[in-house]
């Protein structure tokens, strides 16, 4: 009789979205202007937009048991499980230049993006 052993590594899931230092600093600045100490930045993907999906970002005081939560300094980021699958490996950046200020998501899972910058497929 032969016995076979299999090793399974159960670790932390990859970050659904990573914040650059500039994005984390801007989110922390915006959070400081809000009321409530328990607010987190929720990043979500919703059906819609010109390419099939669109990004949503807002401050949220509520988290679900199955939300993926990551901390970037003083900023807590929360992502629901369905959005996490579409965002894995994505980076949220903030720029404040002559071409316009704002947040931008670079998502390696997006096969097509729209000119508006907030829609992908």
Order of helices and strands: EHEEEEHEEE
The CATH topology label is Hypothetical Protein Aq_1857, Chain: A
Query: Strands of the biggest beta sheet: in what spatial order?
Result: 4-5-2-3-8
CATH architectural group: Sandwich
The domain tally reads: 1
Mean pLDDT reading: 83
Give me the count of strands: 8
Number of helices: 2
Provide the gyration radius in Å: 17 Å
Main pleated-sheet profile: 5 strands, mixed
Give the overall form. globular
For the termini, the CA-CA separation is 51 Å
In terms of structural class, how would the helical and strand content be classed? alpha/beta
Strand content: 35-45%
Give a verbal description of the structure:
- The chain is of the alpha/beta class and 121 residues long.
- It has a single domain, classed as Sandwich (Hypothetical Protein Aq_1857, Chain: A).
- It is 16% helix and 38% strand.
- The protein has 2 helices and 8 strands, in the order βαββββαβββ.
- The strands form 2 sheets. Strands 4-5-2-3-8 form a 5-stranded mixed beta sheet.
- It is globular.
- The N and C termini lie far apart (51 Å).
- The relative contact order is 0.24.
- The C terminus is likely disordered.
Short description:
The chain is 16% helix and 38% strand.
Helix and strand topology:
Elements: E1 17-19, H1 21-32, E2 40-47, E3 53-60, E4 68-72, E5 75-79, H2 81-87, E6 90-97, E7 100-106, E8 119-120
Annotation keywords:
disordered C terminus; 121 residues; Hypothetical Protein Aq_1857, Chain: A; three-stranded mixed beta sheet; five-stranded mixed beta sheet; alpha/beta
